[in-house]
Amino acid sequence: AAFRVVGPGRPVPAAVGSDVVLPCRLSPKSDARDLEIRWIRHRFSETVHHYRAGEDQYGEQLRDYEGRTELARDGLAGGDLDLHVARVRPSDDGQYVCTVKDGPDYQEATMELEVTAPFFDDARPFMAALGVFLGLSLALAGLSAYLYRRKGTQTRELGESFAPLPPPK
């Protein structure tokens, strides 16, 4: 083939609700505006985004991606085939394939999108602080119960030692 399709070579991270760019490019760099570019989900082999003859083709696009994908047009002349995915969902997690067809020539690159839940990523310090707080609260409650019982025991002991004196005769 006259070209290769190159992906990032490492998983692309994205938090739920954020926007992400799946990077892909031609090597050597060449004008991709007249090529057929199709982004598909590897496990489904279904179209996430399709670009052909200078236009986006939405007829085969998976419903889950409607209105959420865009091929970065400003980079096509330089061989960049980046796909923007808006409002990432947990179901977006997995393998993607960037395919390029130029007449009889066909090349592809596979990449992994790793979707994370933003709360749990940011929650680790909070969860640690909550654990320390709960541990200290339990220790304080135990100490308070011990001291309360001890006070009761001492009060009874003092009450017995200061028994009222018999009335004078």
From TrEMBL:
Keywords: Disulfide bond, Immunoglobulin domain, Membrane, Transmembrane, Transmembrane helix. GO terms for cellular component: external side of plasma membrane. Gene3D superfamilies: Immunoglobulins. The chain crosses the membrane at residues 126-148. One of its GO terms (molecular function) is signaling receptor binding. It is found in: Membrane. It comes from the Eukaryota. Pfam families: V-set. GO terms for biological process: regulation of cytokine production; T cell receptor signaling pathway. This is MOG protein. It comes from Caloenas nicobarica. The gene is Mog.
